[in-house]
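quick one
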Amino acid sequence: MKVLVIGSGGREHALTWKLKQSPAIDRLFCAPGNAGTAAIAENVSIAATNLADLAAFAKQNDVDLTVVGPDDPLAMGIVDLFAAEGLRSFGPTKSAARLESSKIFAKELMRSQKVPTAQARTFSDSEAALAYCEELKFPVVIKADGLALGKGVIIAENIATAKSTVEMMMKEARFGEAGRRIVIEEFLRGSECSIHALVDGKNYQLLESARDYKRAFDDDEGPNTGGMGAFSPANNWNAQLQSKFEKEMMRPLLSGLAKEEIIYRGLLYPGLMITVGGPRVLEFNCRFGDPETQALLPRLKSDLLPLLDATIDGKIDKCKIEWDKRPSVTVVLASAGYPGKYETGKPISGLEKAAKLKDVQIFHAGTKLANTEVVTAGGRVLAVTALGSDLAVARVRAYNAAALIQFEGCHYRHDIALGVANS
Ligand code: AMP
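structure w/ adenosine monophosphate:
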């Protein structure tokens, strides 16, 4: 069987790495991939958003299944296009992916289904939004409706920031069309938790829980990033929360989608805030999380391929998903300057030595091959994951491996899974 993974980040290396272990797959492609995927699959130099060329490649090469990593191609309708071309792919359709690509759509669906989430108002008129700022108690959270490269969520501590954010999104159109409409919502306090579900149109199965670290520096200082680390399982998740989540969030959401005649097939990852009043949905993501995937997949004992197939075929309820009980810790190594401006092309050393450590897996993100040398090619460069008998052991292993890897300007957080009670 031939499988194509779309994307070039750590998530896609982790997906490719896991699929590589599937006995049914004899040829694995990654488009465009990175230096990590190049070592275990065939990289194809087509951008993740070049849908027409991806479909043509899948056709010409008799690809049996395409697994879509990032949100952009899903929002652009890659799954619809592939279906129209008779190609099989894993991910929600464009209409279902609006759960992520339109925060207003998601908010309205949650409101109609009474899914617990932050109180919010939506605006398409900047003057009305500016006037609303006068009435608010701070902090508030201002979100661009559409996809904005993870930069479309601003926490406004005061009226001045709120107004300048509204101006920046709606008037200056800094995020283009994505910010023409916005959501202004209540700031929720609590701890975050990432839940992943394989949803097959009707049924779903939850994957293990995870927590990620969004801020750039230790102690949650600095700007928001794509994610600087993760661990699994989450220490703030338990059976009681899970049953509340399924009853109050997953099931009402799926029946809301059904009412709108939207069939959701793929990975659904709700980001939750666990507040004193219970869990609240912060957002929906329509694909695997990054770096949660790098923390989750090394714990997945089951073959991933049959799970993806069952999700597409509406049979996920028939599957048994087995997990390694041991927790995992993932540390992201980033380029100097990230999430702001950074340089690329820095040679990376120590990868082989680090990969030899027990229960350690190195996932590449922003890397590429320059001749035979692995060099940096992005902001988030590598994700180092380790398993351990408990979180503390996993943590030490991940950091020991990270310490062996060097490139100019390499920085990472030192507090991933630090001070977290073993679960
Ligand atoms: P989102 O893309 O909506 O998940 O937002 C990105 C990040 O912003 C979340 O992971 C939270 O850390 C933060 N965030 C979003 N919405 C809220 C909220 N209502 N209250 C507090 N923090 C939020």
